[in-house]
Structure formats: C-alpha cells, structure tokens
C-alpha cells in the first residue's frame, strides 16, 4: 500500500515546545506532502518534499525525508495554540499516478 | 478561502436517496480529486478528473459516480445511500496532471438517516 502511517497518533505539548511527527511508507514515491486539518474543516497544504530532496523548511516547519528508510518527519518549532490540528502525510507515487494517498494523521494539541 | 468551492456544506438525507455534491476548482486548476473522510476509514481517494477526463479511480463504490464538465466544475453523485455513506466529502484541485500539492475545499458533510 502507498499509504503513509503517522506516528504518534496523538501528541500533546505546551505552547513554545517543539512538535515532531513521523510518517513511514512502503512504496517508492515521487514526493511526500504534509497537510494540516483543523477540526472538521478542509485540509491545508503545508509542504511538499520530492524524493531527491532530504530537507525543506517553511517558516516554523521543517520536513525531512529519508528514502532509504522510507520515512519522513515534520517538525513544528515554537508551537502555538493555533497549531492545534490534525497533521497528515500524503504519498504521491511515481509513474503517471498523480493521486495522493493519505495516512490517518497525528492529532496535535498545543496547550496554552 | 482556498479558492475551491464545495456546495452544499451540509446535507441530511434518508437511506435510499440520491444526492449530488458540487465542486468548483481553484481558477486555472485542471485536475479535480474527490475524497471521502470518515472516522474509521480516514481519507479515502475516490476519483480524479483531469480537464474533463477520468484519470484515476480509487475506492469508489458502484453506487457513486462523478464527472467534470467543460467549465471544469465537478459533481459527485451518490445514489442508493446507506447509513455508512455518512462522511465528509472533500474536493481538491491542482494545476496540472502532475506532481503538485492539492488545494482542498471545505467539504460537504453528508448525514444519511
């Protein structure tokens, strides 16, 4: 299956702390993407990392990709209460298949 | 506002009925994707259209069908509805049939009673 699996399923931290979420997958990929979803709302694209990239940054977000271990991590630094949401990794496979396959997500709670 | 418009936002209907969910992609985007999100199954890919043509199919039931019109808006038709079809249905769009991130709509919450 191309589905990514996030770990942990839930994470609770204090404001100002860093949050790290991991994603593992089983197949080859073209790219891996991270999305955020506030409760019951639409998903928001955070960052895309291609299979030939190892690290990307966007503001307080840092994503790493290790294709040899088939894993990725999302680090949110200096977390805020507004970061409370579910975070999903999504796999885009190779070839002419451009669909995204999502994991079940990590629920992040940032306590004020 | 993401630029992807989904209507209606909420829908309550009875078992056995048929409903149509509508999606207008972000301006300039040619690809439209439909996903179903439920607590037990997570986000499941249903179907993709690119510039009016079906491009990929996922776990879409035979009771469900979709199409993309010349103006690029898309409709997802759900028929013979069952209680288990209750879920959030999302539409997403991307610029090309290529390796880009998606822009999601805010979803249609379907409740089958």
Q: Report the total helices of chain B.
A: 0
Low-confidence stretches of chain B: none
Query: How many β-strand stretches of chain B?
Result: 11
Head-to-tail CA distance between termini of chain A: 38 Å
- Our Rg estimate of chain B from Cα atoms comes to 13 Å
Shape call of chain B: globular
Question: Main beta sheet of chain B: strand number and arrangement?
Answer: 7 strands, mixed
What does this structure look like?
- The complex is a heterodimer of chains A (112) and B (113).
- Chain A is mostly beta strands.
- Chain A is 0% helix and 55% strand.
- Chain A has no helices and eleven strands.
- In chain A, strands 2, 4, 5, 9, 10 and 11 form a six-stranded mixed sheet that branches. In chain A, strands 1-3-8-7-6 form a five-stranded antiparallel sheet, with no helix packed on it.
- In chain A, a hairpin with a 7-residue loop joins strand 9 and strand 10.
- The termini of chain A are far apart.
- In chain A, 35% of the residues are buried.
- The mean pLDDT of chain A is 92.
- Chain B is an all-beta fold.
- Helices cover 0% and strands 53% of the residues of chain B.
- Chain B has strands at 5-7, 10-13, 19-24, 31-38, 42-50, 53-57, 64-68, 74-78, 87-94, 103-104, 108-112.
- In chain B, the strands form two sheets. In chain B, strands 2, 4, 5, 6, 9, 10 and 11 form a seven-stranded mixed sheet that branches. Chain B has a four-stranded antiparallel sheet with strand order 1-3-8-7, with no helix packed on it.
- In chain B, strand 9 and strand 10 form a beta hairpin.
- Chain B is globular, with a radius of gyration of 13 Å.
- The mean pLDDT of chain B is 94.
């Amino acid at each position: 299956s191309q589905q990514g699996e996030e770990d942990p399923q839930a994470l609770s931290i204090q404001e100002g702390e860093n949050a790290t979420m991991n994603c593992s997958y089983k197949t080859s990929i073209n790219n891996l993407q991270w999305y955020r979803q506030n409760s019951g709302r639409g998903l928001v694209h955070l960052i895309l990392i291609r299979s030939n990239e190892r690290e990307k940054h966007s503001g307080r977000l840092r994503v790493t990709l290790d294709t040899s271990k088939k894993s990725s991590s999302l680090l949110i630094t200096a977390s805020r209460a507004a970061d409370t949401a579910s975070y999903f990794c999504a796999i885009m496979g190779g070839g002419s298949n451009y669909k995204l396959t999502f994991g079940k997500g990590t629920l992040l709670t940032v306590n004020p | 506002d993401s630029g992807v418009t989904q209507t209606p936002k909420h829908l309550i209907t009875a078992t056995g009925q048929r409903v149509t969910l509508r999606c207008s992609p972000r301006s300039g985007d040619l690809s439209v994707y439909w996903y179903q999100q439920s607590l037990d199954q997570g986000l499941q890919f249903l179907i993709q259209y690119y510039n009016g043509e079906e491009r990929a199919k996922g776990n879409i039931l035979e009771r469900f069908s979709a199409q993309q019109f010349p103006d690029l808006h898309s409709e997802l038709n759900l028929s013979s509805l069952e209680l288990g079809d209750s879920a959030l249905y999302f539409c997403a769009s991307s610029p090309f049939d290529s390796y880009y991130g998606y822009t999601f709509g805010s979803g249609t919450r379907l409740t089958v009673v």
